[in-house]
Each structure stands twice: as C-alpha cells, then as structure tokens.
Predict the 3D structure of the following.
Amino acid sequence: MTQQGSDGGAGAGDDLDGAGLAVGGLTDGSAVGGPAGFGIDSSAGGPGIGSPATGSPIDPATARTALLAVRTEVAKAVVGQDSAVTGLVIALLSGGHVLLEGVPGVAKTLLVRSLAAALALDSKRVQFTPDLMPGDVTGSAVFDSRTAEFSFREGPVFTNLLLADEINRTPPKTQASLLEAMEERQVTVDGRPRPLPEVFLVAATQNPVEFEGTYPLPEAQLDRFLLKLVLPLPGREEEIGILERHANGFDPRDLDAAGVRPVAGRAELAAARAAARQVTVSRDVLGYIADLARATRVSPSLALGVSPRGATALLSTARSWAWLAGRGYVTPDDVQALAKPALRHRVRLRAEAEMEGGTADGVLDAVLGAVPVPR
C-alpha cells in the first residue's frame, strides 16, 4: 500500500486562482519572482547555523536564496506551480503540514515529489484507500519467529515528507492515524512513543468533497493542517506547455531526466527556521490577527469560526513569508496574503449560506474587508 509512484496527471502545472496564494502578495512575477524578486535583505533574520556536514555557518540570506531556488527546480517538472511551491516552503519553515485540494490530474503528487527532490529530503507516498488500516501508516509490531519476539516495523510516516495521496478516500478511523504524528511529531505503538524526524511534513492531497467515494475530513484533522492550497486547472498557455513537454519525451516518473537537482537541504532549512523565528511582530499586528480570528466567530455566515490554533497558524505563516520576502518584521499585508490559505479549512459555512452559494473564501474576503487594518 506504500509506494513511491507518481500522479497520473503528472506534468499538469497549476497556478493558484483568486482564492489562493496568487492573490495576496504571492503573485508570480511580483513578490515571488526568485531571489531578486524578494529584494533580499541579508540583515533580516537571526544568526547563522552550522552546517551538519561541514560545521560552517549558513547565513540566513544564503539559506533564503537556496529555498527560493527550489521554485526553479520544481518548475523543471511542473508547469506553473510557483505559488504552491512557495506555500509548501512556508509550511516547512513554520513546521506545519499542507492540504492540497484539486481535481484528479493536476500534478499534486508530482509537485510533492519534485519538492522532495529539490530539497534532498526523504519522502514516502501512501495511497489512501477505503481498506487502508492505521497500522499501514504508522507501523506495527511484527512477530519474529527467529527470535520469538515482537519487533516494531516502521510505517511510511517515518520520513521527512509524507505524501498522503487522496487522504479523503479513507474512512475517519485511518485518517485519525495521522493526528498524533502531525501534532506531537511522534507515533505511539504498544504504549511506547517513537519520535519522527525533525523535518517532517505531511502533504495530503484530496479531491473535492463532492467527488464520489470521498469522506469529508473531520474538523480536528483539518485543524492540524497549517495551510490549505487549492490547485485549479491550468490556463490554456500552461496546458500547451504541458503538452509540449510530453511531446518532447517528458517522463513524470523520471525526475533526474527532467533535470531536478537538490538546491537546498536540512542545513538550509534549519538556518531558515531559526531566522524566521527571529522575525518581529508588533502588538498592532498581533491585534489584527486576533481581530480577524474573532470576526470569523461572529460571522452570520459561519457555523464554526477560527480557533486560537488557527490564529497562531496565521501568525507563524506570516512570519515565514515576511522572512522569505527579506524583512525582519511582519506587516498587515503579510497577514492578508496568508489569511485564506491558513484559515479557509478552519471555518465551516452555515447550511443557509451554502445554499445561497457562499464559500469559505468569500466569507474570509468579507472579514478581511471589514476588520480595520493597523497603520
């Protein structure tokens, strides 16, 4: 049930639409245009960290440049996914997990595999199916007839980047097998906690819940995802580019042939995480985040508003984005850029709002328009 396979829609590059990261400051060609597009300030962000391999310090600006180069590497295999890659990098910096939603065939799996290759991270893939059991994900105790003892066999969750493919095709019991791993960074089997790697990210893909054979994720599971990125179908020119690549012999199962190479690794991630934690947040901006979260709780369109965990998720992602942008402080624009990706999966519409055609993103747009912005 565990494999390293590729997405059947591999190669279909997708940029996020108006509901996603492409709108609040993470637009291609503007704020996210590669290292130069960020206006890198080498002074922003904390002390350097020694490289595990050489012991030499890694400067925050060097780490930032390496992480921004990941977009270029992923683009060798996936067309038009720059904003989604940025969202995944933000999650890695913030120590969170990502839910990728899109119809089948938009390269969700290829995107994650390419990211792992560009960051030199270990990755494993689990295809979630209705008959998948929790032990197939976390691992289980296996009897060894030679020693007449039970030994623990690690499941695919023991990796750096776990691709949980079509997570909403398995019942809630198996979905819940990831709860402890995602929140506590450990797996408990037979009463013994087993720690996961320091760099650990669950990238879960799901088809829209209207699709046949899907199970909506429970709120407790959704709340453990730092970001939800919506991947739409590609535009016409992007789709032509996809077809050209395939016509020229592109094989989505062979990332080496596509030229995807490691441009960053664990040392750069460690330096970047430490630097992002040094980004300052004023009390006014903290108040703005709190006001946004509180506004969702009183919205007449929502049955469930944003929890304090959602507010802290918005804070951590805004700090990571500010650091990627080369600044040592968070602005209200940073908060607005990450508001929908960080909060859209944490709110639930009232039935009457759904019947009227309302969406979570639409409600969040209204909240962003109503809450005063600090100056």
Observations:
- The chain has two domains: 2-278, 279-375.
